[in-house]
Amino acid sequence: MRKFSSYGPVNTKLHYYVPRAHLIDRACEQLIGDDPQEGGHYITVWAPRQRGKSWIMRQALWSLMQDERFDALKLNLEHLKKDTDTDVIVNNIAGKIIRQLNLGPMAVANLKEFESLFSRDVLKRPLILILDEFDALCEAAIGDIVGVLRNIYNLRNDDPHPSPDKEYLLHGVALIGVRSVLGVENAKGSPFNVQRSLHIPRLTADEAREMFAWYEQESGQKVESAVVERVFTETRGQPGLVSWFGELLTEGFEDYRPDRTRSIDERDFSRVWTAALQLLPNNNIINIISKARQEPYKQLVLDLFRTDEKLPFRFR
Questions:
Q1: Count of CB atoms within 10 A of residue 289's CB?
Q2: Which among 164, 176, 229, 242 would be 20 to 30 A from 204, CA to CA?
Q3: Is 21-199 in CATH node 3.60.21.10?
């Protein structure tokens, strides 16, 4: 039987999930392009943490890998967040591309060589490249890399040949991050102003109900509709929190063991809700608090919640 997964990308074989097929299809459509012979789009995929960005783009990757017209890669860049040298970062990214595409022995030492990596002389087929946690990179590297990508995009648009025969074979790009412009914020405007945007929304009420209905079907235990409505309303459909409450309600915690011989009702929700507000740590909230304690967010948070009285914590 599946379980609710409250943190990190879900495993569709082990966890309850929402298919979100329309978002996956939309991502594939943008990366392939309206006319594949002309090329795909360079897009940003953005949302706050634990919205399912990485999972959706992983599903998109698997779909794209079935298309023999393209090579498709998804690289995670979080491990590069402490590096401040752009050349070191592009060398690491290029090394992964070279190894995964079996391009043979070659080295990329700087941005100019990084751009050349995507030329027809190096790549065998048009490439769709997905870079996860792109906003983890330092601002200088983000600006430099997106500058290269924009130049390639513009050169491809100027090239009259069909996509497989263009000078550069970087067919489509997706940059995944938590900010709408993925850190490319500066007074001169975004150096990556060619991209389209794919926003990952919160769950709808129907999607939240779908997850709990799936649990009911597999477990045989009913979850009262009022409980599901409270979970959705209080979490505003934030996927990580919806799944966390699903986990607490169905699996319990140290001070609460669910009674599987009866329905999960509002009494159960009240116990879980109180513990979630006052006792139990949640990775989503801890992450937000860790960011709020830092500048430039700290002063904004202090101004926003300035009060003479202590406020009880609420997820809403």
A1: 11
A2: 176
A3: no
Torsion angle of the four alpha carbons 87, 131, 96, 283, in this order, in degrees rounded to the nearest 10: 100
> Residue 289 and residue 304: Cα distance in Å, rounded?
14
Q: What residue type is 259 in one-letter code?
A: D
Predicted confidence (pLDDT) per residue in 266-312, tens digit: 999 999 999 999 999 888 888 888 888 888 888 888 888 887 888 78
Task: Report helix angle 225-235 to 239-251, nearest 10.
Answer: 140
pLDDT of residue 230: 96
Per-residue pLDDT reduced to its tens digit, 78-102: 999 999 999 999 999 999 999 999 9
Answer positive or negative: Cα dihedral of 83, 57, 45, 237: negative
187 has a pLDDT exceeding 50: no
Decide if 6 contacts 159 (C-beta within 8 A): no
pLDDT in tens, 284-295: 888 888 888 888
Helix H, strand E, coil C: the string for the chain is: CCECCCCCCCCCCCECCCCCHHHHHHHHHHHHCCCCCCCCCEEEEECCCCCCHHHHHHHHHHHHCCCCCCEEEEEECHHHCCCCCHHHHHHHHHHHHHHHCCCCCCCCCCHHHHHHCCECCCCCCCEEEEEECHHHCCHHHHHHHHHHHHHHHHHHHHCCCCHHHCCECEEEEEEEECCCCCCCCCCCCCCCCCCEEEECCCCCHHHHHHHHHHHHHHHCCCECHHHHHHHHHHHCCCHHHHHHHHHHHHHCECCECCCCCCCECHHHHHHHHHHHHHCCCCHHHHHHHHHHCCCCHHHHHHHHCCCCCCCCCCCC
